[in-house]
Every structure is written in C-alpha cells, then in structure tokens.
Amino acid sequence: MKKIIPIGPYHPLQDEPEFFKLYVEGENVVDIDIEIGYNHRGVEKLSETKHYDQVTFLVERICGICSTSHPFAYVNAMENLLGLEVPLRAKCIRTIVGELERIHSHLLWLGLAGHFIGYNTVWMWSWKYRENVCDILELISGNRQHYSMFKIGGVRKDIPQDLIPEVEKLCTNLVAVIDMFKGAVMDDPVIQARLKGVGVLTKEDAINYCVVGPTARASGVDIDVRRDDPYAAYGMIKFNVIVLQNGDVFDKAVVRILEMYESIKIIQQCLDILKTEKGEIEIKIHFIPKGEGLGRHEAPRGEVFHFIKSDGSNRPVRHKIRAPSYMNVASNKVAAVGQTVSDAAITLAAVDPCYCCTERAVILDRNDNIIYRYNDLIKLSQQKTEGLIKKLVKQK
Amino acid sequence: MEIIKKSLLKSLWVMHAPMSPCNNCDIEILDALTPRYDLERFGIQLVGSIRHADVLLVSGVPNYKNYKKLKYLLDQAAKPCFVVGVGTCSCGRGMFKDSYNSPCNVDDLVKVDAYIPGCPPRPEAIIAGVVKLINALK
Amino acid sequence: MSIIEQVKQSLSDKIISIEENNNLFKKRFYIEVKKEDVVELTKIMFKDLKFRFITATATELEKYFEIVYHYSYDKTGEVVSLRVKLEDKSNPSIDSITPIFIAAEWIEREMWELIGINFVGHPNLKHLLLADDWPEKNYPLRNK
C-alpha cells in the first residue's frame, strides 16, 4: 500500500518553495514526484525587454545565493559574442568575488545540512562564520548580497590597493574556520554513521542525469568548468578539483568543505596578481553586434549556462539561462528512492535545501478511511516500547 | 485582550512564506536569527507551522502557481496574525512587475501590516522593522 | 584527433553546415542538422562520443522555430551545439530525445509549455513551471 508524504511547497526550513511528493511503503521511499514552478518569475522573457546593461542586474536577482554566478556567466556569454578580452585586473577581481561567493554558499549549505540532520551547532557556527565572508564581500563591493560588481567588459568597482592586505588577512583567517568545520564534520563519528552510504547517486546515474558541480564530483564525474574551459583568471591559477567516488551525502559534504580550501588558494593567488598589476578595470562597449554568445561559469552548485542571441539592437532576442540545480534536483529521483523517509530529508537537501515534515501524517486505507489517527499512533508506539522493555528485562 | 497583547509582544513567533523569491530575503531572515544578529533575544523564533505563528513573513512576488496559497496559509493561522512584507518584491514587485507570471502584489491578496523594503534588506533593517511592528502594537 | 574532428567524422553527411565561433573562446561550434536526424545524432553525441548534455534553447524567429541543443565535452572544454530548424510555424513538432537520456525530460517539458513545441514520444509531457490551469495555446515566450 503506497502512501504519499508531501514535502512543501511551504516549509520554514526550505529556502524556496518546492514540492516533493514522496510515495512511501512503510518507511521506504518507493517513488518521488518533483513539482517545481513555485519560483517561476519569467526572467528569460523579462530579459528580452531590458537592454544589455540592465540584464546584468536582472540575472543577479535570479538567485540570491548565486548572485555572482549568473552575472558571471552572462558577461562571459556577452564577451563571447563580442570577442572581447577584458583587462587582467578585472579578471582577477571577478575571480575573487566568484570564489568568495563559493565559500559563503558552501558554508550556508553546510549549516542547513547540519540543521536537517539535527546538528544545530553546525548550523549556528557556519552561519556565524559566514558573516565573516559577507564582511569581506561588503568591504569589496559595498553590499552583503547582490554585489553588483559585474559589467560587460569589466567590473564596476576596483579593489583599492590599500585594501588588499586587509582582504588577504581576512581570507587567511577563514582557513582556521574551515579547519574547524573539517574537524566537526569529517572526523565526527556520528556524522559519518549518519551520512555514509545515504542517498547514493551512482556514476552511471550522474552521467545519465547530466548532473553538475559538487553533486557530480562526489559521484566520481571529474568535471569543473573552471579547469576544463578556463575563463576569467582561472587559466593562470593553480588549483585542484576535488573528486570523490562514493556519491553519498557524506562525500558531497566533504567535496564542499575541501573546495573551500581551494577557493582560498585561488583568492590569494589573485590578490598577489592584483598587487603588481595596475591597469584598467573595464573596456567601454559602444555597440553590440549581431550574433550568438555562450557563457559558462562554475557556480557553487555547478555549471551555470547562459546563451544570448542578438540581432544588433540594444536588447537580446533570446536569453537562455540554465542554472545548475535544474539538472541536480532532477537526480533526486534516483538518489532518494530506496531510502527511508528520515534519510530522504538529507538526501533531498544534499543537492539543494529542502526538508521533510512528517508531523501531520495520517494513515489512509484504499478507500481513504482513516485507520489510525495521531493519538492511535502514539498509543501504538507506546505499546511497542513497552514490549521492547519487557523483552529486555526477560533477557537479563 | 490585554493578556493576549502582553504575551504576544514578548514572544513573536514567525513563520516564513517565500512567494517565488530570489532566496536572498529568506537568507537574510535566517541570518537575523543566527548568532551575529540573534533575533531570539527579543523572543522571536522561527516556527514550523503557521498554526503556531504570530507573524507571517512574506518575501518575493506571488506567481500564478502560488498566489492563492498565501490567502489559504493565512486563513489557517490563529488570529491575530500579522503579515510583514520583506524585500522590495513583496512591497511592490520590483523588477518583476511586468512578468507574465506575476498576477498581483502581495498586498492585493492579504492585508500587510509592515513593509521592510530593500533588495535584500539588511538583517539590521529586518530587526528595525520588527521592532517598529512591536511598538505599533503596543 | 581532436573531438571536433571526431564529431565531423561521425556525423559526416548529416551536417548541413558548421559554424565555428572564432571569438575569444575558440571552443564553440554550431552545427546545423535536419530535424529528422536529431534522435540519431543525439545518440551518437551522448552515447558514443560521451558528450554531456547542457540544455536546449528554443527560439521563435520570424520564419521558423529554432532549437539549439548544447553539448559539452568536458575533457577539452568544447561546447558543440546542434541547431535544428522547424519550418512549420503553425504546428511545430520534433522527436523527443528523453527516451535516450533522462536529463532532457525537464527542458523538453519547459519548451513545450513556454514556446509550444510538441515533442513526439515524450513520456511525461505536462506543465513544469507554469500553473496547471494555465490557459491553453498561451505561450509566454512566443512573440506576440
């Protein structure tokens, strides 16, 4: 007998309204139905009504957590269309902002993941230290979120030379924070017992669902746009791509934690370039020609993809946007099926936050008559506990 | 009535309803509850169900898929329940006003008691907004 | 042999034209193919040549509908896009590629509801982003 447990669309732990229908048999999830669209605002169409400079601000507001990723991919697409090479200083500033965003996003995910498995200490910690990253971003751009740093042909704001030592110091301080999380998550036996082997996405499924980002890298798919198709300053910087093989939730957490170290390495190398490189931060654009442009950026959640079609006017004819979660959320279908309901929550959260609330469950028979109400269930569980106690006493 | 008011003002419990937001206001709401800003020192806590909530925080622009659900959500709340619009989108739809999937403002659907503008409002602004709401209720 | 040579060799006579974007990123290729060949070529791209499917873009242009399927080759960073033209503007339809790999399911549903292209053979063609009671024949991404 299949029962349905709805998750969402509105739940306080969810960042966004999404709707998961879990079909369960007993404790096991046998099928899952994902319904999205509660967040659909028609950005692709709105983009056709705005001119190219305004679109940078529009795409920033697609997602608050990845508010650099979309402008990054968009300016890459526009520069591909224009055939434009931006100045080195602008490239480094872009890279720094992109990587700071990765750290803040991974800390945010880590906190929410801790919250989902009832480890609220990690939640409070990681959101506390996430503020330090927001401070650096505020120092650089003036905003905590929605940095508005990007512009076709360069960046809007320079990082002043006298600010660089301070940014460097603050970034170095972050290493100790990540060390702490590494200890709190990777070496914790309880978390290992809770997350290892849960929500496994096999390599075959990962390829078949075309997942991207940490979700793919935790399943042994070695992809990273930063290394494979270098843009901005990534081509001249040394960093490692973290790839793990198991594909479970634990590996997804570990990939994200280790990636934060790489991000700090990248930021430090970029700051070193900025110290000596003095020059323009943008190239003025006067004319957008007819043509097509295609841009990618490795966002914290995976590859963001923008495709622009221009007819030579001041607005795009078509602006296609594909966010990484579009591919990753669909893969929940295989990762969550076969798990128990309690594991489904963290499995669904492993690619994008979502939570399962079972507190309003009633059990229905095939004619939708209620067999057990909440009080009956409590009575049942009490009887079961009593039975177990008796058994234990007998054994002794 | 006095006793309700007294108990209400000491511990406003909030539930958070994202109406197709960009996530940022939601993050700042959660941020206001975590250690640096710590709204819990004013007795404000995020709760799991609208039935426990005194305040409904709405963020984002309603779309065709969820705009009826906001009214439905508020109908289930124990009264009095106050509605606070967080962010420019819930105050006046912002840049999504002309979208094909945006039927109306939040205040066309329900009565909004307080607006906190900003894209996104800083946690300090959210705290100031809540304090203003508390003062207005006194 | 570079991957684009391999693509040229395996698609051979199915290619109508090939366009290379010689701009800053020298790894962008646009290949125009016939509508009838899409399923076969998708199989070659995904199964044999091990491309990763990124997404597909449907656009309404003046005389025809255009679908561009974007594929990424992650070992060397090429993006190869297959371009298809649907000449029949009153009733655009094309074979679905979802039976080959599941990743195309959502994007085909999205193109169906937002631009009104019918995908023949799609297992689950229903609304993805819009409300279920969205008026029929009202496609938001079409030019009015």
Topology overview:
The complex is a heterotrimer of chains A (396), B (138) and C (144).
Chain A: E1 3-7, E2 19-25, E3 28-35, H1 43-47, H2 52-60, H3 69-82, H4 88-116, H5 120-141, E4 150-151, E5 154-155, H6 164-186, H7 189-195, H8 203-208, H9 213-217, H10 225-228, H11 249-276, E6 290-299, E7 302-311, E8 316-322, H12 324-328, H13 332-336, H14 341-351, E9 363-364, E10 370-372, H15 374-395
Antiparallel strand pairs in A: 1-2, 2-3, 4-5, 6-7, 7-8, 9-10
Chain B: H1 2-10, E1 13-18, H2 24-33, E2 45-46, E3 55-59, H3 67-75, E4 82-86, H4 88-92, H5 106-109, E5 114-116, H6 123-137
Helix pairs in contact in B: 2-6
Chain C: H1 3-11, E1 15-21, E2 28-33, H2 38-48, E3 52-60, E4 65-73, E5 78-86, E6 93-95, H3 105-115, E7 118-120
Parallel strand pairs in C: 2-5, 6-7
Antiparallel strand pairs in C: 1-2, 3-4, 4-5
How would you characterize this protein structure?
- The complex is a heterotrimer of chains A (396), B (138) and C (144).
- Chain A is an alpha+beta fold and 396 residues long.
- Chain A has 2 domains: 99 residues, no CATH class; 271 residues, Orthogonal Bundle (Cytochrome-c3 Hydrogenase, chain B), CATH 1.10.645.10.
- Helices cover 49% and strands 14% of the residues of chain A.
- In chain A, the strands form 4 sheets. A 3-stranded antiparallel sheet of chain A has the order 1-2-3.
- About 5% of the residues of chain A have low confidence.
- Chain B is an alpha/beta fold and 138 residues long.
- Chain B has a single domain, classed as Rossmann fold (3-Layer(aba) Sandwich).
- Chain B is built from 6 helices and 5 strands, in the order H-E-H-E-E-H-E-H-H-E-H.
- Chain B has a 5-stranded parallel sheet.
- In chain B, helix 3 links the parallel strand 3 and strand 4.
- The longest helix of chain B is centred in the last third of the chain and has 15 residues.
- The two termini of chain B are 12 Å apart.
- The model of chain B has no long low-confidence stretch (mean pLDDT 86).
- Chain C is of the alpha/beta class and 144 residues long.
- Chain C has a domain of 88 residues: NADH:ubiquinone oxidoreductase Nqo5 subunit (Beta Polymerase, domain 2, 2-Layer Sandwich).
- In chain C, the strands form 2 sheets. Chain C has a 5-stranded mixed sheet with strand order 1-2-5-4-3. A two-stranded parallel sheet of chain C has the order 6-7.
- Chain C is globular, with a radius of gyration of 16 Å.
- In chain C, 38% of the residues are buried.
- The chains are: A alpha+beta (396), B alpha/beta (138), C alpha/beta (144).
- Chains A and B meet through helix 1 and helix 5 of A and strand 1 and helix 2 of B.
